Amino acid sequence: MHDDPAGLDDLARRLLPHLAGGAAASRLRRTIAPTDPRALVRALLTVRDPGPFEPEVVRLLDSWLSGERAARGVVNGAALPSIAEDHPGTGYPAAASTVLWEGDITTLAVDAIVNAANPGLLGCFQPSHRCVDNVIHAAAGPRLRADCHAIVTAQGHPEPAGRAQITPGHHLPARYVLHTVGPVVTGPVTAAHEATLVSSYRRCLDLAMSHGLRSVAFCSISTGLYGYPREAAARLALATVADWLATRPGGVDRVVFDVFGADDLNLFRRLIGG
Predict the structure, then answer these.
(1) Virtual CA dihedral for 110, 205, 131, 137, nearest 10 degrees?
(2) Class in CATH terms, 75-272
(3) Integer angstrom CA distances of residue 108 from 46, 67, 84, 101, 174
(4) Which residues make Cβ contacts (< 8 Å) with residue 108, sequence separation at least 6?
(5) Distance, C-alpha 272 to centroid of its chain
(6) What is the pTM of this model?
(7) Which of 22, 56, 150, 189 is 20 to 30 A from 227, comparing alpha carbons?
């Protein structure tokens, strides 16, 4: 496995001729420095439509994506301290079964991570964009986009908000990805927004339980481009997960709240107390 920078650069250069077709690829090659072949490969994969690769390209991609995963590192979700352990004074009712963690969700080794998807389920198609949808698709590799394309094609319509779909994790440390589309908030939060966000969390947990998955890591659904106020979303996430765990004992062993940045971490800490 090539997990050193030089080896990953070499693999990326070997991949570039196979990814360089199309107008979008041509534009990217003019805007990303050729001295950063790994960034260019990531960008080209981001704008590529779902579809098969030649076997030689699949082998190169698998080697490169495995090396990228090793370079990012892997965090054992089972070794993270629970909220009860980290915050012994908390009054959060699900503290023993939940974790509050700030980190890169694509490094987390759990049974499933949750992707805050858009209705197309295919990622955001914006190179280098730091939304969780793009980050997860980039780390998992193009098979994830192909799987999501198959789901949307089979159902014959975009994914409705408040539901959930499951795919393999491919090159992620997580075994599976749970994809959910949260509500879009452009004004005051309504009862419909709240119900949809509750449904996203519950449907993900229901889907995990039905597949025998024991650990799930949530990103903060709908709080980025979809505009849900962060504190309101955090309160709802904490309450929904606690209620689900209380009413389904043994359904899932561990839920990780993966927050983005110090502000969100402090927000969750304030809400759980302790």
Answers:
(1) 60
(2) alpha beta
(3) 21, 16, 20, 10, 6
(4) 74, 75, 77, 101, 173, 174, 217, 256, 258
(5) 24
(6) 0.94
(7) 150
H or E element in which residue 99 lies: strand 98-102
What's the full length of the chain, in residues? 274
* Residue linked to tokens 């990303």: 32
- Domain residues of the chain, as ranges? 5-72, 75-272
**Angstrom distance (rounded) from CA 263 to CA 220:** 13
Q: Going residue by residue through the chain, which has 274 residues, state the pLDDT in tens, using 9 for 90 and above.
A: 456 878 999 999 999 888 876 555 556 655 665 678 898 898 889 988 998 999 999 999 999 999 999 999 999 999 999 999 999 999 999 999 999 999 999 999 999 999 999 999 999 988 878 899 999 999 999 999 999 999 999 999 999 999 999 999 999 999 999 999 999 999 999 999 999 999 999 999 999 999 999 999 999 999 989 999 999 999 999 999 999 999 999 999 999 999 989 999 999 999 999 6
Phi, psi of 150, deg, nearest 5: -65, -40
pLDDT per position as a tens digit, 189-205: 999 999 999 999 999 99
